[in-house]
Specification:
It is a single chain. With 188 residues, this protein is mainly α. The protein is 80% helix and 0% strand. Residues 184-188 have low confidence and may be disordered. It is a multi-pass membrane protein. This is VTT domain-containing protein.
Length: 188
């Protein structure tokens, strides 16, 4: 996803930003961690990395809303959406859109079903978008700073094993997120 090393350092800024943005569409937390490590290693500037992360995650969130809205219009697409089953759901999503979006940003596995449900049930877009962007700023910044700290320590103190440590750190982020999402699914 994001190549860390001399190859990345020599790339133009637009290509670094594009790589990070595309990475957020694949696995946004992994893209955040790898971007932070690349920033710590001096291969990408912190403002460029954070700007690309914010942009990519926000566009992805708006895309999930759009996917839900499209699913409401086209029955074929609706088959692929995971939506809550409740009476008066549209009213509930409309009145709780800020709370739903803010909380789901911090709960692994919640964004896809809840953001698409917001679009499907026509929750007001402006509060959705503003809350998604603000929650993204908080979550992405915190994860980025944590990854810079841990990644910097691994780069500085693990010698030849630093890449194994970095891979383990990234794998840990992915596994913990998947585990929490799976536990949520089982408890429902």
């Amino acid at each position: 996803m994001i190549a860390i090393g001399p190859a990345m350092a020599s790339q133009p800024a637009w290509l670094k930003a594009a790589t990070i943005i595309v990475g957020t569409f694949i696995l946004e937390d992994v893209a955040t961690v790898l971007s932070a490590i690349a920033a710590r290693a001096g291969e990408v500037s912190i403002p460029l990395a954070l700007g690309a992360l914010y942009f990519g995650v926000a566009v992805g969130d708006m895309g999930l809303y759009g996917l839900g809205a499209a699913g409401a219009r086209w029955p074929y697409l609706k088959r692929f959406l995971t939506l809550p089953k409740r009476e008066r759901t549209q009213d509930w999503f409309s009145s709780n859109v800020i709370r739903v979006v803010a909380i789901s940003r911090f709960v692994p596995g919640a964004r896809l079903p809840l953001y698409t449900a917001c679009g499907f049930f026509r929750a007001p877009f402006l509060p959705f978008a503003m809350t998604a962007v603000l929650a993204t700023l908080v979550w992405t910044t915190c994860l980025f700073l944590l990854a810079m700290r841990v990644g910097g320590w691994l780069l500085a103190h693990q010698g030849g094993w630093r890449w194994a440590g970095l891979a383990g750190f990234v794998l840990c982020i992915v596994v913990v997120g998947r585990l929490i999402a799976r536990l949520q699914t089982v408890s429902q």
